[in-house]
Amino acid sequence: MSHGALDPSSGVRGATAPGAAIDVVDLVKQFGHNRALNGVTFRVPRGTVFGVIGPNGAGKTTIMRALLDIIRPTSGQATVLGTDSRNAGPDLRRRIGYLPGELILDGRTSGRRLLQHYADISGPVAAGHVHELAERLKLDLDRPVRKLSKGNKQKLGIVQAFMHQPELLVLDEPTSGLDPLMQQEFLRLVREAHDRGQTVFLSSHVISEIQQAADQVAILRDGRIVTINSVDELRATAIRHLRLVASGIRPTDLAALLGGLDGVTTLDCTLTPTGDTEAVATLSGDIAPFVQAISTLHLRDLVLEEPDLEESVLKLYSAPAAVTQ
Question: Residues 105, 145: contact at Cβ < 8 Å?
Fold first, then answer.
């Protein structure tokens, strides 16, 4: 199938063979004395949404630029849609939709003309698709680009990345500048791309965004991948905050009971004005041992919050140097 053709069964341009859309092995990038990437290895299966979370300066943008041959790695290898990234010619680029983190657009023309220019480069765009995307994002395509707000320029960047329905979307901080309603619309676009069989590789420091969108998540810190997990796996190890009130047990005994459980950290254990005992704690890992342990108590109240994925990820950001690839 030619790269400019549409697969009539999926609407996604290019081949849809199984395997990895992105395969990165021991990628290193050195800028002078600064090592921005330090042996990064990961694999993105075709047809999945892969998220990279990390604080500013972790190396997210460097990975994306290396994948697209905007910069050359110092060592290691990156394969994109079956092609060495260092051989990323026009044919490969047409199969990719890219939204850079620092979006620079020509301000002398309208959004419509600018998108036509990008369409001429990327290949055929289905009739009416640009208009549909602009409507969904509430974007006026006839305004001069220079008069657009940051958020509307970001919308224009999203449209140019999605409009030709590429095999692979590479999106660097894609919701920067968008209001919450538009962030949710963007996430719907990602889910629809996933449903069509497209692969999405996106970076963010907004953990809730990755949690809603991604099948797998890589956590990046100081140019290294700390861990790669599914969102469900991250949630299983996430931290829950809990509060319980029990009668007929002293604070010291309740603290001892909770303190003997793996994954439970007791923050406070006190008597209430009614003579009951209130405990405030955090819980990580498997919930079953906790439930079994408190089943012997005479509970007056129990509040167990949803897992706090953000808190867990932030702990990984600041974890010791031990690295899991």
Answer: yes
Strand bridging mode 96-99 / 168-172: parallel
Question: For tokens 């092609």, what's the residue?
Answer: 83
The amino acid occupying position 15 is: A
CA 188 to chain centre: 14
Q: Which residue bears the tokens 């460097």? A: 62
Give the gyration radius of the chain's Cα atoms. 24
Q: What is the pLDDT along the chain (325 residues), one digit of tens a residue?
A: 233 333 333 455 444 445 799 999 999 999 999 999 999 999 999 999 999 988 888 899 999 999 999 999 999 999 999 999 988 788 888 999 999 988 888 778 899 999 998 898 887 889 899 999 999 999 999 999 999 999 999 999 999 999 999 999 999 999 999 999 999 999 999 999 999 999 999 998 777 788 888 999 998 988 999 889 888 777 777 788 899 999 999 999 999 999 989 889 888 999 999 999 999 999 887 888 899 999 999 999 999 887 666 666 766 666 554 444 4
Q: What backbone torsions phi and psi does residue 280 show, to the nearest 5 degrees?
A: -120, 130
Q: Say how far apart CA 307 and CA 298 lie, in whole Å.
A: 25
Other Cβ atoms closer than 10 A to 248: 10
203: nearest Cα among 79, 311, 70, 60: 60
Give SS3 for 231: helix
CA dihedral 191, 195, 199, 200 (to 10 degrees): 0
pTM here? 0.77
